[in-house]
Amino acid sequence: MAILVTGGAGYIGSHTCVELLNQGYEVVVVDNLSNSSRKAIARVEQITGKSLTFYEEDLLDYAALENIFSREKIDAVIHFAGLKAVGESVQMPLEYYHNNITGTLLLCQAMREHGVKNIVFSSSATVYGRPETVPIREDFPLSATNPYGHTKLMLEQILTDLYTADPEWSVMLLRYFNPIGAHESGMIGEDPKGIPNNLMPYITQVAVGKLPHLNVFGNDYDTPDGSGVRDYIHVVDLALGHIKALQKMEGRPGVKIYNLGTGKGYSVLDMVSAFEKASGKPIPYKIMPRRPGDIAICYADPAKAREELEWTAQRDLAQMCEDSWRWQKNNPDGYGNE
Ligand code: NAD
Ligand code: WQD
To answer: What Enzyme Commission number(s) does the record list for this chain (predicted)?
Structure first.
């Protein structure tokens, strides 16, 4: 079976390519490298000892997509490609809507032209907006507070409408919680450009000496220690969730929605101590005001994925921290250091 992985050079995409190749799938990647490196592809091949087909192309280029679907016999698509920085999406809404929405529309159009009707889509816990209670179930109300979140909500709707119009489509909407960690080899991992927005890459850059201290955004939330609580999930567990989704969708049209999280919540200060323990490095921090738009607590009810996909996250917080640290320590400048 050949799987087209859009955004396959990115953080979650590269880890998913490793697991796909390990399980014997043929992998075709399309990525414009706007937020990633070709080196990630080479490392995926090194880790697995297998090769994949890589197209450095933009989803906004329909002729390029046409060419890929004509040349490759694709059975299903895992669609990661997109812009993902919440703050940037507020500053650059047109770029976010254009890239994420138009890119997906063109992808789906090319899929339809070539009779490929199986898609696994990267959605996000951000679609739950400000949940009233936790743990968060898939049937909770949906909302968005920024353009990035709106693109995820809109794309969930667009893919659902596609199935309504043509019930041969099989659509898996996977709502990720907070992916962290890296492949245990330390050869691939998250490589943010500039100063990281997200907690774990910020912590690892403090540990390696690139940033002086962590800013903890708020210690006055209604949580056990006052800092924000999230459901951190190891990126390899997340990658394996995609393979379960592919297996379950085979021959079963419909739209299915799953949370991919662990069901456990950890605070920012929990993360600091877990990371210090795993790395042996002190993480100095300063308490700062709350970050606008943040919520106090967010964690998944992962029961539906456990029951229907037969998937649960296996890797604990210690392993997430150890693997994030191995990647950062071995690659202090990410993929840019070779
Ligand atoms: P990433 O930026 O590392 O990977 C996305 C990849 O898509 C990059 O390699 C980028 O170059 C590529 N890309 C972007 N626009 C493209 C286009 N027009 N054409 C071709 N390639 C394009 O991000 P990630 O963390 O791996 O996230 C993957 C997906 O998961 C995204 O859709 C993101 O919104 C979603 N998601 C991520 C998180 C997270 O915290 N990392 C959480 C929830 C959902
Ligand atoms: C986690 C916690 C921060 C950085 C984002 C997106 C979400 C999804 C995952 C894509 C919060 C605190 C952070 C720092 C801090 N992405 N923090 N200092 O905000 O839960 O989710 O990424 O879909 O849509 O919004 O993740 O890692 O930014 O923050 O104190 O320097 O760490 O306040 O409590 P978040 P995060």
So the answer is: 5.1.3.2
**How many other β-carbons are positioned within 10 Å of the β-carbon of residue 180?**
26
Distance 310 CA to ligand 2 centre (A): 28
Percentages (nearest 5) of helix, strand, coil residues in the chain: 40, 20, 40
Q: Is the ipTM of this complex over 0.95?
A: yes
Ligand 2: nearest atom to the Cα of 217 = 30
Number of CB atoms found within 10 A of residue 314's CB: 11
What is the 3-state secondary structure of 78-94?
A: EECCCCCCHHHHHHCHH
Q: What is the pLDDT of residues 297-308, one digit of tens each?
A: 999 999 999 999
What is the band of 14 on the pLDDT scale with cuts at 50, 70, 90? very high
Cα(198) to centroid of ligand 2, in Å? 5
The DSSP element (H or E) to which 236 belongs, if any, is helix 235-249
Half-sphere exposure (Cβ direction) of 136: Cα atoms closer than 13 Å: 29
Structure tokens, 114:
């070539």
Checking if the pLDDT of 338 tops 50, the result is: no
